[in-house]
Every structure is written in structure tokens, then in C-alpha cells.
Amino acid sequence: MAGTTHGEGRLRPPFPPWLTKTLTTLATVAATIIGLLFVTFMIGRVMPIDPVLAVIGERATQEQYDQTFRDLGLDQPLLMQFWIYVSDVLQGDLGKSIRTGQKVTTDIARVFPATLELASLGTLFGVVLGVPLGVVAAVRRGSWIDHLARFVGLIGYSMPIFWLGLVGLLVFYGILGWVAGPGRLGIFYQGVVEPITGLLLVDSALRGEWTVFRDAFSHIILPASLLGYYSLAYISRMTRSFMLEQLGSEYVTTARVKGLGEWQVVWGHAFRNIRIQLVTVIALAYANLLEGSVLTEIIFAWPGLGQYITTSLLANDMNSVLGGTIVIGTIFVAINIFSDLLYRFFDPRSK
């Protein structure tokens, strides 16, 4: 037909690619959150704990029991109970803690900064030491430093963290006295620093309380080092694997043939091409420390979210347990979204 241009009539997508990807991401996040809420809801229903007795106690009358049963919405159909549960969570209502008598959100806001501080410092150790170790191990493949890096990673994956924690306390606190003992701060410094961010190292530095800062650092250095060691084992192993793949590429051989220095080849070319992959690895390592520091917090009496959930579980305080689980799951999803955004920032081709 006259006037018909080449390609006319070709089907076009209803939305721009960036909008389609954004909507897909939002739908995935929503489905994940709903799935997390459904799992926690079902856990609360199948646990052999009467939620009514947990609230009013075993000495309550039948009238009190029936009234509380209705107040909790347990007389509604299961689907309606789930809808009420989702509505409350989306409004920030995670229920009331039986153990502390406060809102679960208030308790979590109080204890989470301790876990955040511990996991952040542990991840920092893992990145600062793990990335260079993995790069050098790949460059010096088969050398003693490569074998050392692989041995460090093997020990990190094999040793139980509770055993390393007990040994660390015995050696560095009990015998050598290089670090402070369990807890987050010495008893003489409790309440000295008024919270700003909830992160004790940051708050004490902002307030200029350097004595408190040193005491807090002495308490956190050992548990953070243990978490950092596990993070280091994972990050160094993945960095080594990524670098070996890049160092065996043709463009690296071409760069060396052109006479470029080894430093420029390794860090200017090979390492630049693995930054995108490392973003995801570091984000996953950070998320794993946030959710997996339970044993470390128990061993070191660290007043964080992991110890809070464990103590609540032993006290049959399911509102606190499920609330903490929801928070950890949401944080894990948020970190994955953040890593995906960084991935797109470093690699425009993925947009």
C-alpha cells in the first residue's frame, strides 16, 4: 500500500521497558511480602500455644476467655483473620509483647540498632579483608596465599560460630584480657550517652564521649570479628571465582600484550568488571548477618533482635517472635531491591 513505511504495523509493547520492569519488581515485592505474612500467620495458628491464654493467663474466667477470644478476632473465618492480620501489619501494628508489656514495634525499635551495628561492622570487616584477599588469591593462583585464602574460607564455612564464640571469649577475654566481656557496654557507662541514632559507636562519637566509645568498641570488636570472618569467607571465595573468570578472558591477555602494568590490568580492567557481581554478593552477605546473628548475640549477651526473638520464643511470646520474623524478612527483601538498583546503576545495560 502506498505511504506505508517500513516496519509499520509492528506490534509495540503497551508500556516502556523501564515501566514494565518497575511494575514487575513491585509485583514481585508485593507477592513476597504477602507470602511472608501468610507464612507467619500460619505459624501463629499451628503453634501449640493458646493465644488467648497467653494474653490473659491460665487463671482467667470463662467470660474473660470468651471476650478476649472475640477481641482477637479468633471467632472470624480463617480468611478474615488473615485479612485483619495483614491490615494490622501494614499499619505498623505487630501486636503487644506478652513478655515486656509493650508494643512489639517499640521493642524492635529498641533492640534492632544493636543488631544493625553488629552486622554492619562485621560486613565492613568482611569486605575490607575479603575482597583484596580474593583478588590476590586469583592473581597468585596456586601460590601459598591462594592456598591460605582457600583454607580461611574452608574454616569459615566449617567451624560452628557458637564454638568460635566460646573459644574467642576464653582466649581474648578470659586469658589475654584484650577485649571486654559479654554485653554491649560496661555497667558503669550505661545511660551516659543519650541515643541519637541508636548505634552506640556513632552516638558516643557524636556526643564526644570517647571513653564510652572505647568501651563500646572493646565490647563489639570480638563478636563483629567473628561475624566478619564468616562474611570474609564467603566474599573472598566469590571474589576469587569472579576474578579467575576475568583473568582468563581474552581482553586481559590483550591488555598484557599491549604492555599494561599488572596493577592496571588487575584493578583497572578485571576488577572493574566484577564490581557488579560483588554488589550482589556483599548485599547478600550483609542480609545474612542481619538475620543470622542469633547465636552470636546469645553467646555474647548482645541485646539485639536475635536475642530478643530467642528470648520471646522461650517465653511463648509469639507476637514478638512473628513480629521480629516479619521485620527480618522485610529487611532482606529491601536489601535485595537496593542491590538490584545498584546493579542497574553500575551496569546501564540492565536497565
UniProtKB/TrEMBL annotation:
UniProt keyword Membrane, yes or no: yes
Compartmental location: Cell membrane
Gene3D superfamilies, per the entry: MetI-like
Entries under PROSITE patterns matching the protein: ABC_TM1
GO CC term, one of those recorded: plasma membrane
Listed GO MF terms: dipeptide transmembrane transporter activity
Transmembrane segments: 22-43, 118-139, 151-176, 216-235, 278-302, 322-343
Keyword field: Cell membrane, Membrane, Transmembrane, Transmembrane helix, Transport
Main location: membrane
Membrane topology: Multi-pass membrane protein
Family affiliation: Belongs to the binding-protein-dependent transport system permease family.
Protein name per Swiss-Prot or TrEMBL: ABC transporter permease
Species in which this protein is naturally found: Antarcticimicrobium sediminis
